[in-house]
Structure formats: C-alpha cells, structure tokens
Amino acid sequence: MRIAMIGTGYVGLVSGACFAEFGVEVTCVDKAAEKIAMLEAGRMPIYEPGLEDLVARHRAAGRLRFTSTLEPALEGADAIFIAVGTPTRRGDGHADLSYVFAAAEEIARGLDHPALVVTKSTVPVGTGRRLQRLFRELRPDLPIDVASNPEFLREGSAIEDFLRPDRVVCGVETQAARDTLAALYRPLNLIETPILFTSIETAELIKYATNSFLATKITFINEIADLCEKVGADVQQVARGIGLDGRIGRKFLHAGPGYGGSCFPKDTLALLRTAELHGVPLRIVDTVVQVNEARKRRMVKKIVDAMSGEVAGKRIAVLGVTFKPNTDDMRESPSLVIVPALQAEGAEIRVHDPEGRREGERLLPGVTWCSDSYEAITGADAIVLLTEWNQFRGLDLDRARSLVRQPVLVDLRNVFDPERASRAGFVYTGVGRPGRRAGA
Length: 440
Ligand code: UDX
Fold this sequence. Notes:
CATH topology of the largest domain: Rossmann fold
CATH class of the largest domain: Alpha Beta
Distance between the termini: 64 Å
Bound molecules: uridine-5'-diphosphate-xylopyranose
Structural class: alpha/beta
CATH superfamily of the largest domain: NAD(P)-binding Rossmann-like Domain
Helix content: 40-55%
Strand order of the largest sheet: 3-2-1-4-5-6
CATH architecture of the largest domain: 3-Layer(aba) Sandwich
C-alpha cells in the first residue's frame, strides 16, 4: 500500500516512519524545505528516541521518502494523512485549523484519483464533516473519502506507542475507508490490538476526551498532593493505593508541577471551546485547566518558601526544563512559568537539561546553560528539579552537597528519596511528601 503523510513534526514523522515499519510505502511531505533537507541528510528535525534509526532504515529500503511538494506524494496514494499542527489559536483557545484546511485544499486540487483523506492531527469535533463539504465543493468530479484516525503518541515513547498501541481509533463513513485503514493497520492484528471503527465525530471526540481525562487524572493527584502535605500523608503511597483499584489504574498518577506539553494544554482548551460552541458546560475540564495553570505559579512559592523567602541575589540550579523527560519539547513546560518568575524575584538561574538547550535558549533568556548537573549545582543556594530525566535520578547527593552554597533541594517530581537527601545534608522539599530537615 502507499500513503502520503503531510507534516513531518512529532506526529507526522513518527507515524510515517512507523507505517513504513508496517511495510507501507510512505512519502512524507512538508512545506518547510529546510526540514525536508535535514531529513534527506539523515538528520532529525525533532528529538524522539529511536526515530533516527527507524527513518534511516526505511529510507535505505526505499520505503520512506521525503518531499516538499505535494504532487509526487499523491501519486497512487491509497490514503493521504493530514498530520499538520493544530496549535491553540492566539487569544481564544480554539484550535488553529488553518494548516489543516490549507493541506486539504492542496490535496483536493492535486488529486487525480479517488482517495481517502485521513486526519491524524488532533482536530475539533466536526472538522471531518467540514472537510467532506470542502472536498465535495472543490472536487465534485472526484469521490474523496474522509476519515479520522487520531494518534495517542506520547513524546519520548512515540514509536512504542505507535507500534504497540492500546487501541487504534478509526472514524469512517464508508466500507472502502474502513477496508483501507484496516489494511494499513493489519500488522497490529498480530498483537491483537483492538481497532475501533466508529463515526468520524466519535473518533474526533475520543481523542479530546482521552487527553482531557488524562489531564484531569494528573490534576486530581496534584491536588491530593497538596492535601498530603498538610496532613502528613505520602502522595506516592496514596497514588499506589488508589491505582491498584482496577477501575482507576496506576498510570498518570505522578504528582508534579502541573502538566505541560503540546497536547494536554491545547486539547483541553479546544474541547472547552467546542463545548461552548454547543452550549454544553464542561465544568470539570474547565476547572482542570485553571487548577493546572495556577499550580505552575504555586510551585514558585514552594521554591521561595524552601529558600526561607530569600531569592534576590541567590543562585538556583534548575535540573530539567523540558515538559517531560526524553524529549526536547518545551511547549507549555512548567519551567516557562517557574524560571522567569524566579528571575523576576532576583534569582540567578543556572540550568542543565540533557536535550532542552536547543529550544530553551530561545525561550528562557538570561539563564546560564551548564553542560552537566554538577556544573549547574556549583555554588547554588538551592537545587530545583523540574523534569525527571533519568540522568538526575543518579545524582551523587554527597557530591552535590559539597558543591552547593546552601543545602536546599526542591524536588518537584519526587525523584529523590527524602531520607537519602536528608542524610546527605539537604533540607528536602518534595511534592505531596513530608519535608525533611538536613540530617534528620
Ligand atoms: C500526551 C498523551 O499522553 C498522548 O497520548 C497524546 O497523544 C499527546 O499528549 P505527551 O504530551 O507527549 O502525550 O506526554 P505525557 O507523557 O502524556 O505527559 C503530558 C504531561 O503530563 C507532561 O507535562 C507530564 O510531565 C505530565 N504528567 C504525566 C504528570 O505530571 N504526571 C503523570 O503521571 C503523567
């Protein structure tokens, strides 16, 4: 089979390479010629573990091609996937669909055979229906089918999530569309992955409801963490205790500084706008958005309190600025709120992040970038862990203690063992866990 994948970002490039892994002939398209040039040179425009090898292997096999013009990608394509960005529109929270509709128009004008157009980008409920109308308008001469096939890829484990998904969701209107998608995902039959065929609107809403529920689950445990700190409970044990209930499940119950990333923030907002458009209040999701935004700011107070209120002129070592480990993505990262707020209070910030510097230098002006944790920690009046990169889990706390000016450790991802931190001489503050005095 042959497909076109429009968009070579986190979703398009991973999906294109993984479809090639399924034996499909894939042509990835991107208007950004420099991205295509990078990919042709074997370099990745994004950081995603395992992607470089996967792309190289399938390029060498001639199954994966890249082009900055659409036409060659449309030739003989059984399906054309739209995997372009749908960022939050400035100011009103709606999803910006300009890239989706620009791609759709170009597809309509370029097609010379009946084809299936599949939205893989996260698009508001009703977008597939709008695309159907557009195609009928632009190409009354050509049957163009529309389907929804949302992705559930987590950055940092996107290839795994594509090749071994919990489920595949397909919103289809015709048997032909269903047969094409079933054929593309046939390799997953081997591992008996459930493939859910449903209506286009239902598939679109499943995506938003999934991300909004996960954002709700995280925000729930984050608020429970606040209560734990007051009553002396341990949120990690609470999470374990509730997560063992099969109806709750143990994942996405790690308390932290609030969720970020390219999806949860934009998808919760877009779902709220869709609900408003249809006059349906989603009060839980609305509260989740507000609580999460406030939480990032509340983390600043937690850090200032851990430094006894004295931040001006102090040096703070920040470990991790990406929104999560194993990615270079900084979108909506809590660090984008926390670091500038500390700088505004007069702190000098030194940062180490294994992958964050490329994006971070543009987004976090005025910080000193360090090549390793110990360089960042030297002379610090506080160490603040924001992102749980594995590199930080192995931090030598005794060595760190010898390097800091003040033994303050604020661990916003509960990476360290409080007892161990205390024995090393740190005053330890976690999230939802009892604090520890030095040497306690
Ligand atoms: C998410 C969804 O998981 C994925 O299915 C969807 O396709 C895209 O959005 P992603 O944003 O890449 O994936 O990362 P994810 O691992 O879901 O984390 C999202 C945010 O929640 C991160 O800021 C992370 O730090 C935070 N998080 C996650 C927590 O704070 N606690 C958790 O237990 C899990």
